[in-house]
């Protein structure tokens, strides 16, 4: 699943917002908890404990496998099912940033998995649209609040 969002915020602000573990539940579909594990909350090797709440509820761990400050973060599941989320940040203007979100997941093979894959694709498409719209709204709202605070 691949989505792009054009947000009214600087790329540095957008990156800081997205990579702040406290903000993740405000924009990530179904995530009710997202906390650093250990003493690292940023950079390659940082680990995060997350909880998903929805029709099914479960906890899982993500590991940052790529991290370029201001430009890129890649999170991958530590255990099956294999999920990979790549978030890229590209400045478009002084206060506009394109955020690209690419989510991939792997399911086991077989007929049951093929049926499950079709259902997951529908759910994943809905989830990624949710992420894109919520992320845009939350980043822009926080950026506007920060600018108001800085000017007054």
TrEMBL record:
Domain of life: Bacteria
Xref: InterPro entries: START-like_dom_sf
Full protein name: SRPBCC family protein
Source organism of the structure: Nocardia jiangsuensis
């Amino acid at each position: 699943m691949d989505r792009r969002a054009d947000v009214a915020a600087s790329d540095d602000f957008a990156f800081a917002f997205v990579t702040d573990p406290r903000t993740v539940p405000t924009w990530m579909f179904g995530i009710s908890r997202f906390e650093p594990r250990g003493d690292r909350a940023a950079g390659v090797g940082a680990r995060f404990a997350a909880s998903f709440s929805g029709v099914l509820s479960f906890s899982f761990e993500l590991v940052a496998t790529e991290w370029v400050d201001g430009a890129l973060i890649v999170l991958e599941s530590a255990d099956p099912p294999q999920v990979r989320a790549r978030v890229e940040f590209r400045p478009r203007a002084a206060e506009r940033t394109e955020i690209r979100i690419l989510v991939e997941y792997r399911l086991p093979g077989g007929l049951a998995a093929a049926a499950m894959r079709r259902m997951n694709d529908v759910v994943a498409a809905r989830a990624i649209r949710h992420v894109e719209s919520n992320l845009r709204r939350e980043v822009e709202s926080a950026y506007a609040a920060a600018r108001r605070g800085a000017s007054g």
